Amino acid sequence: MSILPFLKMNKEILLLILTGIFICIDLLTIRGITFLTEGLKRNTQIIIYSVFWTATSFVLIFLIYSFANPMPVRSVQQVSRQYFLTGCIALFYIPKLFFIAFSLVDEIIWLLASLLRKFKKFSMLAKERLLLFHHLGWTAAAIVLLTLLHGIVWGRFQYTVEHKSLEFQDLPESFEGFKIVHLSDIHASAFYEHTEKLSEIIAAVNKEKPDLIVITGDFVNYFAEELDGLENIFYRLQAPYGVYAVTGNHDYGDYHLWNTIEEKKSNYLLLMKKLRYLGIRVLHNESVLIYRNNECFALAGVDSWGLPPLASYGDPKEALKNIGRDTFTILLSHHPQLWEKKIAGQLPVQLTLSGHTHGMQLGINTGNRCWSPAALIYRHWAGLYEQNQQFLYVNRGLGYIGLPMRINMPAEITVLTLYRKR
After folding, report:
1. In terms of Cα–Cα distance, which of 85, 352, 333 is closest to 218?
2. CA dist 30 to 103, 109, 128, 132, Å?
3. Cα Rg, the chain, nearest whole Å
């Protein structure tokens, strides 16, 4: 679903709707708290209510202030404030929703008991509220709050280095042991005021001594200016065969309400100019040949390609048109869905590298596996997939979008080493 309808909505109306929703959540929450605190001393109740309404007022006041005092457009500070606001809303309201959900179970039980007591054989049912689910809801809310807090403070900057060895029957012999580092979804504003975290990631990339570095899109959230101040960090990326990339859906400025089409286009062109300055070659529905000794493989790149309602700029056939059918080919595509819709079983591509999903920035351990809500949307949402000797790898990304957190879904540096199948 596109967010543009919300961007086009009158700011005052949007603020009124959001404030109304949050106040309803607060009133339902305080109703449940009232039942839980009935037996406490009056002074204790006053302290609990004061803390609740003070914290709630802080979020609502900041929400109103953000709408009334917009930051300068095309500034990383604007995106940073957005992250801070969504983080506060998540911390203060997601736990309340869990508490309300559990409390409603108690309310339903009490209502059913009240109705049944009208019948003589059920007259012995207790008139008091059991409040069992209120207590369970309070516990669940506390657990959710601590989990969210961990995801914001620590989880969003945690990363793992994933090493994968891939075997191909048709890999040119000269590329035996060829090492590729795959990065994706940097969302540069995520590292605003945390540049040391990005420096640490780049150092970890260089430590792997890759032959080639590829980046599968979403360098920014909205504006080319989000890269300002990070140039010296990105410039440290080192690989003898170069740094290549493709665009992601966020790189086109599709999620900002521009004054004119020309303004949007100039933002995109400025981003491409900044990437060229950093020594990053962006492949726009095209390919290059990577040579080692007298052998080569093709590296192709597709502009952001997505299913509706996402805009689609990519053309895989155009990207592959100059590649011989027997040439070993690696394709860069921001969206993993391209692989299942257009590549697997249809086009001669041995390896496709993608990103986009972020693993929904949320993972739930289920035994020896990790499940993510991303699986409800994407068939291929993280890790390695294979179909008839055609491989897809989906990187979980480096930055974040929406909520400034990662919960059991750390950022990822992927290290792929290519071998000939024996």
Report:
1. 333
2. 11, 19, 19, 17
3. 26
- Structure-block tokens of residue 121: 């054989």
Q: Please give the average per-residue pLDDT across 297-325, as a whole number.
A: 95
Taking the CA atoms of 267, 272, 273 and 278 in sequence, report the sign of the dihedral they define. positive
CA dist 128 and 31 (Å) reads 16
Residue corresponding to tokens 């049944």: 116
pLDDT digits (tens, 9 = 90+) for 411-421: 999 999 999 98
d(CA 212, CA 232): 19
In what side-by-side order are the strands of the sheet with 178-183?
159-168, 411-420, 178-183, 212-216, 243-246, 280-282
Give the number of other Cβ atoms within 10 Å of residue 404's Cβ.
24
Angle at 321 between CA 320 and CA 324, to 5 degrees: 85
CA distance 285 to 317: 8
Within 10 A of 50 (CB to CB), how many other CB atoms are there? 10
Query: 297 in helix, strand or coil?
Result: strand
Tokens of 11: 């700011």
Residue 296 β-bridge partners = 291
Strand partners for 243: 213, 280
- Mention every residue, 6+ apart, whose C-beta is less than 8 A from residue 315: 285, 302, 303, 305
| Domains and their CATH numbers in the chain | 4-149 (no CATH), 155-420 (3.60.21.10)
Higher pLDDT, 65 or 6: 65
Percent of the chain with pLDDT over 70: 94
Task: Say if CB 337 and CB 307 are below 8 A apart.
Answer: yes
CA distance 55 to 49: 10
pTM, full prediction: 0.91
Q: What is the mean pLDDT of residues 125-151?
A: 86
> Would you state the pLDDT for residue 305?
96
Distance CA 252, CA 261 (A): 11
Would you give the DSSP letter of residue 221? Answer: S
Helix residue ranges per DSSP H, 191-343: 195-207, 231-234, 261-277, 316-320, 337-338
Look up residue 105 and give its two tokens: 């179970």
